[in-house]
Structures are given as C-alpha cells and as structure tokens.
C-alpha cells in the first residue's frame, strides 16, 4: 500500500460524494417526485461545467489583458500564475460561476420543457438522452471551447491557499455545504404543497391536469430547479479537476446517477444521498484499484460501469423501493393541523380523565 | 352438477377487496343474470372467473376443473367465451382476423366455423375484410359476441353487452343472445338494465355491495317491483 | 456535388435503419417496453460477423442464421431474466425503461471487456474491425458497378421485410402479435397466451436488430459502440413511423438516411457545416416530429395534443 494517500482518498471521495449527491437529489426531484424520466442529466451537468470553465478562464485572461486562445499552452501557464495572486478575484469568480451555472443550466432545462409538454415519459427520456449526446458531440467539435481537448487550467477558487491538504479540505467543505443547501432546499420542496402536487403529477398526470393545475408550467419549474442543481454540480466538478473534456460527460454518467437514486430509494432525498455515498465510494475504490494494480485483465473502469448496470437491474428486481422507502408529504399546514389535532386529543383525554375522577 | 361454481369467493384488485364471499352457480343450458347497482362488483365477478382479478380466497370450478388462479388464456381454453364491456374488438385488425383470433387454439375446421358464425351474424358478413374500427357500435358488439362464441364454448360470459347501444341495436342483440341460447350455450349475463336482463334470464342474482342480496327465479323477481326496489335501494318495505 | 456513391449510401444505410427500426417498433408495440438495450443486440450482430470471419473468409449465407439466432437469444434472455419478472411485479413503464438502461450499460462494458480481452489474446485489432466475407455478387447496371456487399445488404433487407410482412398478415402467430399490440387484455381473454407472444416478439425483434448490425458491418467499420451510435437515428426513424406503422417507418428510414447522405454534403458545401455534426440531422428531425406529431400509444398519450390555442378566447 505504499504511496496510497488515505486522507487524499477520503477528501476526493467527499468531493465526489457531494457532487453526485447534488446530482441524484436533482434527479430525484425530476424523476422520483415528478415522474419525468430524465435520461439526459449529464447534459446539464456538462453545461454547468463548461459554463464554469469557459467563464472563469475568460475572466482571468481578459481581465489581465491577455488574449491567448483558451486552450493554448501560454494560456495554461498564465492561468497557473494568475490564479494564486488575488484571492478575492478567485472567490468572486467562483461565486459568479456558481450562480451563473445554476441559471444557465436551469434556463436550458426549462426550454427542454417544450417537447416534455407534448410527449409522455418514454419520449421525453429519448429526447433528453439524445440532447445530452448532441451536446457532447457539439462540444467535441466546437473549437472555442477546446473541442476534443476540452478546457484546461480552470483556476481553482482556493488556488491561493498554500498546501494541497488545506486546499482540498477547503474545497471539500465548500462542496459539502453546497450539498447541505441543496438537501435542505429539496427537502423543503418535497414537504410543501408543491411537492404534493409533483407527486400527483407523477401518479396521474391527466387527473392533475383536470384538477386545474398548470402541469406543463410546474414541470418546467421542476426542470429549471433540477437542471440548475446539476449545473452547480458541474461547476464543482470543473473546479475540482481543473480540466474538463467532452468525454467526461458520457451518457453512462446519467445512469450512474440513476443507479444512485434507485439504490437509495425513489422519491426520497435522504435515499438519494445514501445511494450517492455508496456508489461514489465504489467508484473511488475502483479508481484506487486502478492505481494500486495497474495491470488488471479488464479495465477497472469497465467493471465500475458494469456494476452500475447490475445495480440498476438488481435493485429494480429485488428491492424496487430502494434502501429507504418513500415517505409521506409533510407540508407545514399538515404539521400545523396535526399539532392542533394532537392538542385536541390531549384536551379530550384530560376531560375524560376529569370526568372519571369526578365519579 | 353445475357448469360453473363460485364458492365463498373473495376477490378484488391489488389490495382492495370488492367481492366479500360470493356463492354463485350456473347450471348447464340456462341464462343467469347478475344485476345490481353501480359499483356492486358485477364486472368483478366476470373478471374473477376469467382470471383478470385477484382472488384472495374461495374457489372457482368450471366443468369439474378448479380454475382458481389459472392464467387467463388457459381458463378460456377450457371453454369459456368472454366479451368484455369495453374495448372488446381488435380495432386495427379486420373483422375476419378478429374472428380467426377467437379460434387461436383450435386448428380444425377454421373456415367452417367462420362461415357458420358469419351466417348467424349477417350484419358483419359483408364487412369481413374491413378493419373493426370502422364498424358501428352495434356491429362492434355483434363482432365481440361472434368472436367469443366462434370457438363454441360451453359458457358465454357477456359483460353489459347492451350498455352503450341504441334501443334498436340492443333489441337485435337480445334476439341474437336468444338464438345463441338455442344453440345450447350456457350464458352468464352481467347487466345494468334490470328489465332487459330479467326478461332474458332464467335465474338471477342481485349483487349489492359485493354480496349476494337475492338469488332466485328471474321472472319472479321481474314480477315483484317492490322486492327489486328494496334490494336496490335498501328500502325496508 | 452529389455523386452516385451518395445515392447508393442513402439506400444502403436507409435499409439498415429500416430493419432495426422495424424491430424496435414491433417490440415496442407488442411488449410496451422501450428497450434501450436494443442497441446492444445491433452491436452483437456486427461483432459476431467480425469474430466469426476472423480466420479466413466466411460465407454470408451461413452467417445470417447464426447472427439472427444469436440476437434473438439475447433479446429473449433480456425478457426472461429482467422484463418478464418486472412485469409480474407490476413495474411501471418508467421502471421497465430504467431496467433496460441498466442492461444497456452493463452489456456495453461487457462488450468492451470481451473485445479488449480478445484483442490481447488473439493479437488482432478488434476495436475497429470489418468482417471478412466472401461476397462475389457485384452487379453492373445503369453504367454503374455495385459492390457485392451492397447487393447482399439490399437483398437481405428486402427478404427480411417481405418475410416480416407475410408473417404478420398471413400466419396465426403474426395475427396474434398484432392482436396483443392492439389490445393486450382482450387478446388474453381470447385465449392468446401473451407470454408466448412476448417471446416470439423478442425472437423476431432481436433477430432483426442483429441482422441490421450485420448489414452495418458490411457497410462500415465495427466498434463496441456501433449500436449506440445508431440509437438516435433508429429512434428518430421509429418516431417518424409513430412507433406504429411499418410503412411509415420505411419512409422515415430513407428520409433520415437521405438527409444524412445527400443533404449533409450540400450543407457542407454551401454553409460550411462540419461533417462531424451529422447526428444533429436525426436529432432535429426527432425534435420536430415530436413537436409536430407526437407518437401515439402509452408513451405519448397526453391530452395536450388536442389543445389548440384560438384567438379571442
């Protein structure tokens, strides 16, 4: 085990855990709650990552009056130098891209609602799946974002911090706090009247429509939020690796997120996080395996993806509800009513008690 | 021995129990009507017999075989013709193909059977090559009945055959049902229209709330409006 | 400039699309499962053609039944091990689709593993390969010379479609397939064993997919992702056919193929569009069809379709 860095392993796992948890929470919001089969999650993830990479690199280069093409060696060297100079610039660009990638991915997700409005789950799935593939093909051939080479030298928001450990720890903490915000937000959506409406759409779209709900608009809102969350995950990914290539956004990534959601339990945010924890751990372990035993017969990456497929099928066959079952919707009003009912029950009991005593 | 026997049948869909312990018997050669108000579980009776509802407990025997929990197509093979209430023809297939599919498990005398059944239903004979979706409501119902009886089953189950028909089409269908009976078929008729059902049937069961409320002679029931009223509306006369 | 080569390619690739989309349409109509792992079967057919002809030249007529049966077995295996069990658990269409995606991703990387292993064990390039077939059916007509591979592909496609048509309209089992597609519960009460019909459907659909993979191998190089690269075109073609009608599917196949092979060079010459953006044609066709005329059936049936906005309301 010489050369295997346990702290580094845990920190990188924490970052990937946060990224994938955000993704699986957002998928759960769209698929588990609303019933839209989003097979193109990776597209919005990629949009967030590319937005972040492009905007941050452009900002750094253009603010300093450099006009190297963004994938040239000069640019990468310059970015390496510039990124350690001004912490405030790093952090403000980070915040800008974080919000920007949310909005960018979200708006495009909202526009995808157009076909979603007209077709059922299967064709919505095909449409977004092929949208993701199209985006990848586009990125591979579009020169301004580096074509096949992708974007390299994305300035890390904490690049000015000395020492790899504190830099990684800081980034892991940022990722975890973003995950916490996402979780709390998703939890609030789930346990609100909107969450109840989403479940109604999932269970019977036509009936919900005839209840007078604007189903397409609600679906669009959910796609906006979900895609925005995926954009945030992409933003974190771009900063963490410092470089992105189109081939990091294969359709298989979407299905890895699907496996997480199914394993943890559909319609359940805590389940999504649990599934993400388990699968990213396996994922990081196969990466470590690759590092420790470089000469395996089969590429560990293949084993990892095969495992994703097996997990999806096995969970669906043997534990379709996942590890954590779906819970009831607890809206604030419902909680209030429950509390009132509880109080009334108590008062009634007291009254009975008093009556019995009097006798 | 009765042709069809339901013993203390509890059945329903998924977790919901619709029928709470039904005893029913159909003897050879008779027409038995099941009537009752909406939601009483009339269609669930026929669905249970052909294996399209979940049986929780009880027993269904047909012609000496225990058919409880058997797959639908095997039950049908034993000699039950079933006409569902809705969607009872293959719309994209031609009339002739519809009839051929009623004979899926029979190999002998296919042409002869189709010819005989088309003679019985001259209304659809001229349209044998056209797709079933162009038929009118009455013709569709005829085709559905024809498809069910073409394999010459022992028992024919009709689920609200006249429900969506014009009075005229309903009249001619009733005539056909009587003709089919003359051919020696036993018929279990599930109907909303009490007068029409009782007029056709020899015996009747009144189903209320998933239980049998009355069992007996159909004509007697038809002649006793007060009893019917009490059964249907729960009025204690 | 348009050349006869592009016309030939249009017909050739169009036939590949047609055969595979016909299988997809048929399986979707009868089983109501949108099977993404269908692409694995195409890849299987293509690779079988390569691997079985590695040592010496193969005979196409021997290869066809082997490829067909292998694809059928794979499709029936998917149904036996996954779909039939999920159906008996009363899974939703969404869950069935998700399971097919699980199979898809699993098989894809199994292929990668096997191909990589064979490549190392046999010391031959397999990641990009072509089959080694004896095809001396070249034709000379209209002043043009058609290659043996082209003639074989077209003859195969014609034979497959003709037999599919005869099967569906003339045989009892074919009619039963159409009956189940039309009305599954009525088929069941007519005494048609729907589980057997499902297996027959997967037998045919799997065979068609596998054969289309073989046809692709005759046309171009084979990679472990050959089926995945075709998926978009195949779905687009099926959706043009409304996932319902086989003649419309044929139309869709040649339209898409024509757009890719005839329109693309024109666009390249006139507006300088890069040839690598070829898949976008299928994608935009898919989007346009879905927006204008969404396919019928369980997957597409939502009431929005009938809503028309009128002025003054």
Please write out the topology.
The complex is a heterotrimer of chains A (359), B (237) and C (313).
Chain A: H1 6-33, H2 41-63, H3 73-82, H4 87-118, H5 121-141, E1 151-152, H6 164-190, H7 193-203, H8 205-210, H9 215-241, E2 243-244, H10 251-264, H11 269-292, H12 300-318, H13 332-358
Antiparallel strand pairs in A: 1-2
Chain B: E1 4-13, E2 16-26, E3 31-35, H1 42-49, E4 54-62, E5 65-66, H2 72-77, E6 80-83, H3 95-102, H4 110-120, H5 122-125, H6 137-149, E7 155-159, H7 167-182, E8 186-191, H8 194-200, E9 203-208, E10 211-217, H9 218-222, H10 225-233
Parallel strand pairs in B: 3-8, 3-9, 6-7, 7-8
Antiparallel strand pairs in B: 1-2, 1-4, 4-5, 9-10
Helix pairs in contact in B: 3-6
Chain C: H1 4-31, H2 38-52, H3 60-88, H4 93-122, E1 139-141, E2 144-146, H5 148-170, H6 172-182, H7 184-189, H8 194-219, H9 226-240, H10 246-271, H11 279-292
Antiparallel strand pairs in C: 1-2
Folded structure, characterized:
The complex is a heterotrimer of chains A (359), B (237) and C (313). Chain A is mostly helical and 359 residues long. Chain A contains 13 helices and two strands, in the order αααααβααααβαααα. Chain A folds into two domains: 6-327, Orthogonal Bundle (ABC transporter involved in vitamin B12 uptake, BtuC); 329-359. In chain A, strands 1-2 form a two-stranded antiparallel sheet. Chain B has 237 residues and is an alpha/beta fold. Helix content of chain B is 37%, strand content 27%. Chain B is built from ten helices and ten strands. Chain B is globular and about 50 Å long. The mean pLDDT of chain B is 86. Chain C has 313 residues and is mainly α. Chain C has a domain at 7-224. Chain C has a two-stranded antiparallel sheet. Chain C is globular. The chains are: A mainly alpha (359), B alpha/beta (237), C mainly alpha (313). At the A-C interface, helix 4, helix 5, helix 8, helix 10 and helix 12 of A face helix 3, helix 4, helix 9 and helix 11 of C.
Summarize the structure.
The complex is a heterotrimer of chains A (359), B (237) and C (313). Chain B is α/β, with parallel strands linked by helices and 237 residues long.
Q: What is the CA-CA span between the terminal residues of chain B?
A: 36 Å
Structural class of chain B: alpha/beta
Ranges of chain B where pLDDT stays below 50 over 5 or more residues in a row are none
Highest-level CATH class of chain B: Alpha Beta
Largest sheet: spatial strand order of chain B: 6-7-8-3-9-10
In percent, how helical is the residue content of chain A? over 70%
Order of SSEs of chain B: EEEHEEHEHHHHEHEHEEHH
Q: What's the total count of β strands of chain B?
A: 10
The largest pleated sheet of chain B is described as:
6 strands, mixed
CATH topology assignment of the largest domain in chain A: ABC transporter involved in vitamin B12 uptake, BtuC
Number of domains of chain B: 1
Task: Quickly name the level 1 CATH class of the largest domain in chain A.
Answer: Mainly Alpha
The count of domains of chain A is: 2
């Amino acid at each position: 085990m010489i050369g295997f860095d346990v702290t580094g392993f845990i920190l990188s796992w924490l970052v990937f855990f946060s990224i994938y948890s955000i993704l699986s929470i957002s998928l759960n919001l769209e698929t588990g709650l609303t019933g839209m089969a989003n097979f193109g999650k990776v597209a919005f993830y990629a949009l967030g990552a590319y937005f972040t990479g492009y905007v941050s690199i452009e900002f750094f280069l253009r603010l300093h009056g450099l006009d190297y093409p963004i994938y040239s060696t000069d640019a990468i060297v310059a970015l390496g130098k510039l990124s350690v100079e001004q912490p405030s610039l790093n952090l403000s660009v980070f915040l800008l891209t974080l919000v920007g990638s949310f909005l960018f991915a979200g708006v495009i997700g909202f526009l995808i609602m157009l076909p979603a409005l007209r077709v059922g789950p299967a064709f919505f799935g095909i449409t977004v799946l092929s949208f993701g593939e199209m985006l990848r093909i586009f990125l591979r051939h579009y020169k301004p974002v580096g074509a096949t080479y992708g974007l390299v030298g994305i300035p890390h928001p904490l690049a000015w911090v000395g020492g790899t450990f504190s830099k990684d720890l800081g980034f892991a903490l940022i990722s975890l706090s973003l995950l916490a915000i996402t979780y709390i937000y998703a939890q609030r959506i789930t346990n609100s009247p909107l969450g109840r409406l989403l479940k109604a759409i999932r269970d019977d779209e036509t009936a919900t429509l005839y209840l007078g709900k604007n189903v397409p608009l609600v679906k669009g809102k959910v796609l906006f939020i979900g895609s925005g969350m995926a954009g945030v995950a992409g933003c974190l990914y771009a900063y963490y690796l410092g470089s992105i290539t189109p081939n990091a956004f294969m359709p298989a990534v979407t299905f890895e997120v699907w496996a997480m959601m199914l394993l943890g339990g559909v319609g359940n945010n805590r389940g999504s996080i649990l599934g993400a924890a388990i699968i990213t751990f396996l994922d990081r372990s196969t990466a470590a395996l690759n590092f420790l035993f470089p000469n395996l017969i089969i590429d560990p990456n293949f084993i990892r993806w095969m495992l994703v497929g097996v997990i999806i099928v096995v969970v669906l066959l043997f534990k379709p509800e996942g590890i954590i079952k779906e819970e009831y919707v607890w809206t604030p009003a419902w909680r209030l009513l429950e509390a009132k009912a509880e109080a009334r029950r108590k008062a009634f009991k007291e009254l009975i008690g008093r009556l019995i005593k009097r006798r | 021995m009765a042709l069809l026997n339901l013993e203390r049948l509890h059945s329903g869909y998924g977790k919901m129990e619709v029928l709470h312990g039904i005893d029913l018997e159909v003897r050879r050669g008779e027409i038995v009507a099941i009537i009752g108000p909406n939601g009483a579980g009339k269609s669930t009776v026929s669905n249970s017999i052909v294996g399209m509802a979940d049986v929780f407990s009880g027993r269904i025997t047909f012609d000496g075989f225990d058919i409880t929990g058997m797959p639908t197509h095997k039950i049908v093979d034993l000699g039950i013709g079933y006409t569902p209430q809705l969607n009872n023809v293959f719309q994209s297939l031609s009339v002739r193909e519809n009839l051929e599919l009623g004979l899926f498990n029979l190999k002998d005398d296919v042409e002869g059977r189709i010819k005989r059944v088309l003679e019985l239903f001259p209304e659809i004979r001229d349209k044998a090559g056209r797709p079933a979706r162009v038929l009118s409501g009455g013709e569709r119902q005829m085709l559905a009945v024809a498809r069910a009886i073409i394999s010459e089953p022992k028992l024919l189950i009709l689920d609200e055959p006249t429900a969506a028909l014009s009075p005229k089409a309903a009249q001619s269908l009733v005539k056909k049902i009587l003709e089919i009976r003359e051919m020696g078929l036993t018929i279990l008729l599930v109907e909303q229209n009490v007068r029409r059902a009782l007029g056709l049937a020899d015996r009747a069961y009144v189903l209320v709330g998933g239980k049998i409320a009355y069992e007996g002679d159909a004509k007697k029931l038809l002649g006793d409006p007060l009893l019917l009223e009490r059964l249907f509306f729960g009025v204690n006369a | 400039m348009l050349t006869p080569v592009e016309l030939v390619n249009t017909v050739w690739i169009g036939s590949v699309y047609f055969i595979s989309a016909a299988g997809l349409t048929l399986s979707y109509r009868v089983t109501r499962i949108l099977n993404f792992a269908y692409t694995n079967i195409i890849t299987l057919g293509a690779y079988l053609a390569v691997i079985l002809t590695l040592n010496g030249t193969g005979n196409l007529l021997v290869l066809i039944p082997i490829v067909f049966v292998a694809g059928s077995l794979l499709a029936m295996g998917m149904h036996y091990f996954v779909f039939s069990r999920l159906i008996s658990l009363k899974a939703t269409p969404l869950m069935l689709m998700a399971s097919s995606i699980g199979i898809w991703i699993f098989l894809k990387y199994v292929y990668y593993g096997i191909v990589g292993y064979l490549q190392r064990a046999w010391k031959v390039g397999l990641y990009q390969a072509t089959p080694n077939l004896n095809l001396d059916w070249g034709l000379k007509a209209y002043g043009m010379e058609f290659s043996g591979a082209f003639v074989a592909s077209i003859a195969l496609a014609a034979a497959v479609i003709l037999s599919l048509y005869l099967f569906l309209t003339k045989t009892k089992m074919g009619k039963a397939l159409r009956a189940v597609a039309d009305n599954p519960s009525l088929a069941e009460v007519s005494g048609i064993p729907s589980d057997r019909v499902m297996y027959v459907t997967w037998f045919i659909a799997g065979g068609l997919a596998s054969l289309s993979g073989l046809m692709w191998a005759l046309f171009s190089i084979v990679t472990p992702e050959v089926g995945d690269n075709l998926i978009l075109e195949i779905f687009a073609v099926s959706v043009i056919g409304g996932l319902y009608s086989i003649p419309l599917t044929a139309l869709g196949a040649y339209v898409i193929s024509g757009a890719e092979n005839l329109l693309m060079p024109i666009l390249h010459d006139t507006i300088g569009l890069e040839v690598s953006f070829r898949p976008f044609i299928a994608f935009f066709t898919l989007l346009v069809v879905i927006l204008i005329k969404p396919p019928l059936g369980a997957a597409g049936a939502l009431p929005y379709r009938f809503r028309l906005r009128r002025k003054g309301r």
